[in-house]
Amino acid sequence: MSVTRFLDPSILRSIANIELKARLLVEGLYASRHRSPYYGFSVEFVDHREYAPGDEPRTIDWKMLARTERYFVKRFEMESNMNVVCLLDASRSMAYRPSGGERLTKLEYACYLTASLAFLVHRQQDAPGLVTFDQDLREFVPPKQGQRHLYTLLAELESLEARGETNLARVLDTIGQRLTRRGIVLLISDCYGPPARVVDGIRHLVARGHDVVVFQTMDHDEVTFPFQALTTFRDMETGGQLMSDPLRQRPLYLERLERFRGAIAAGAIACGADYRFVDTAQPIETVLKDYLLYRRERAR
Questions:
Q1: Same domain, 202 and 160
Q2: What is the DSSP-derived secondary structure letter of residue 60?
Q3: Which of 112, 110, 159, 109 is nearest to 138 (CA)?
Q4: Looking at the structure, do residues 71 and 192 belong to the same domain, yes or no?
Q5: How far apart are CA 162 and CA 172, in angstroms?
Q6: Which residues constitute the domain of residue 161?
């Protein structure tokens, strides 16, 4: 199967004219159209300063010398690559598929999100990266520019299988130590685990200077709990089973789910991260476009 399977043309068209921008102007965080606060020699002229011994002759403005008979050098705005790392949950809980099979699994949905965002980052000449995980880091594709690198990332998504249990708190702590350069970190996960520990992991990433975005992704069945008949429910990660009457348990389930979602959302936002809840019944292009437009408007 082609490595471009997760590059859906309809999704790419929906975000064709939108950029993913970093929120803060920090060293090494902006690329191409993302400016750094430091001066260097690049493509956009800023101003002049007087020549000083040791300056490179190629930076001298000879026209200014002809007009003023004094030596000035040109200063340009330095530009550098922005790293954007997709942190993708590939644990067994992400493999849930509705009985009708009419929707993507959470992992398939997340792969389309990741591929689209990686393509967007590549197109704006920044550096996409990918980390897959379950209870530990599984694969780490460091951020890099170039089409060959993009295909490497897409091939990794194509071969990805859901397996293992989730330990998101441990993974967030580990990746915080591995990512030595600040950038954007996109977490795509159902975020299963103790909310306080998950939020602590997000807080550590933000404290290290990363711009963190959380896409908490759940299947529509998990969100609505539509089951009617007496059902045996199986934990996809531990294998534990429980027979229950879903009509009686539905109010309690929805209350606990809302409490869990609220804890993750409130904690992430309090840390300074962006948060989006994603229901797999939502069109992927709508989720992406809405978030990118929100981010663009906020930047203005």
A1: yes
A2: B
A3: 159
A4: no
A5: 18
A6: 9-26+82-299
Model pLDDT for residues 130-175, shown as the tens digit of each residue: 999 999 999 999 999 889 999 999 999 999 999 999 999 999 999 9
Residues 173/85/211/94 CA torsion (nearest 10 deg): -70
Q: Are residues 179 and 277 in the same domain?
A: yes
The answer to whether the beta carbons of residues 137 and 175 sit under 8 Å apart is yes
Cα(267)–Cα(246) distance, rounded to whole angstroms? 30
Question: Taking Cα atoms as reference points, which of 97, 105, 178 lies closest to residue 136?
Answer: 178
| 213, 277 contact by CB (below 8 A) | no
Structure-block tokens of residue 201 = 């992991």
pLDDT tens for 77-118 read 444 578 999 999 999 999 998 877 678 999 999 999 999 999
Burial of 13 (0-12, 13-18, 19+ CB in 10 A): exposed
Please give the full DSSP string across 197-239, using - where no structure is assigned: HHHHHHHHHHHTT-EEEEEEEE-HHHHH----S-EEEE-TTT-
Q: pLDDT tens digit string along 41-86?
A: 445 565 677 877 767 787 788 888 888 888 888 766 444 578 999 9
DSSP characters for 69-84?
SS-EEEEEEEE-PPEE
Residues 6+ apart with CB under 8 A from 8: 112, 116, 284, 285
Q: How far apart are CA 113 and CA 4, in angstroms?
A: 13
